[in-house]
Each structure stands twice: as C-alpha cells, then as structure tokens.
C-alpha cells in the first residue's frame, strides 16, 4: 500500500481508488490480503456503497490541519490558495458537498480528472490550468508533511 508519510495526497487518492475498485469488483478482494482487509473495513465502517474509509478521512484531516497552519505562516502558500480559490468554489458548487474544504476540493478535482482520463474524455485547457495549480498545492503540502514526519 502507498505510504501516508511518503506522499499523503497520493495515499488519499489511492485509498479512494481502492474504495471504488472494491465497490465495483468486491470479488477481487480475494486476490490479496490488503484488498480483503480494506473491503472488511469498508463493511465495518458502513461505507460499502459510498463514503470514505476512516484511514482516508484521518489523512485528509491531517492535510487540512497542515493547510490551516501554512495559511498562517507561509505567505507564498496563502497566495497560491487565494489564486485557486475562485475555481475551487466553482468546483465545490457543482458537487453534492459545496462546503467541502479547499484541500478536499483539490483532491476531488485530481480524482475526477483521473477518472475522466481513464474514460478518454477531453479536459479543457482552463480546467488543466486549475488541475496544475491544485497539483502544485498538494505537492507542497505533501512535501511539507513528509519533511515533518521523516524522523518518525
């Protein structure tokens, strides 16, 4: 499994992908102990049909906490958020959870982009710019998270 410490954003996206995979193909869980364990967790947590594992929610919460801290201490980071925020607000307004955090919106954007690319659906240049900005933001957050947790 992807390591949360290595790249927390990729870890969350990986968990989301596994959740969708196991919902679509629950019989595939028998192929590995990792998948079997995740499917069992999904059932125990009541998210067999929709929702996210506590593992993903905790990691997202950790990213959001770091995000809030960096908004207070890193002027370039705050400027990057201010730059992307209008596009994130548009994205949020088109979801069933318009009150999601900016970090969850960035992750959702990247996850949805991955799904569109798998379906070979073209993505507009305007959207690609937002994807790039969200990726840079998550990359910075993940690197900061990694740097702070490397000693553990």
Descriptive notes:
This protein has one domain. It is built from six helices and no strands. It has helices at residues 8-24, 33-44, 54-73, 75-93, 102-118, 125-149. The chain starts with 7 loop residues before the first helix and ends with a helix. The model has no long low-confidence stretch (mean pLDDT 94).
Question: Short description, anyone?
Answer:
This protein has 152 residues and is mostly helical. It contains six helices and no strands. Helices cover 72% and strands 0% of the residues.
Radius of gyration: 16 Å
- Name the beta content range: under 5%
Quickly give the structural class.
Answer: mainly alpha
Largest sheet: none
Provide mean pLDDT, rounded: 94
List the keywords:
6 helices, mainly alpha, 152 residues, 72% helix
Compile the SSE list and pairings.
Layout: H1 8-24, H2 33-44, H3 54-73, H4 75-93, H5 102-118, H6 125-149
Helix pairs in contact: 1-2, 1-3, 3-4, 4-5, 4-6, 5-6
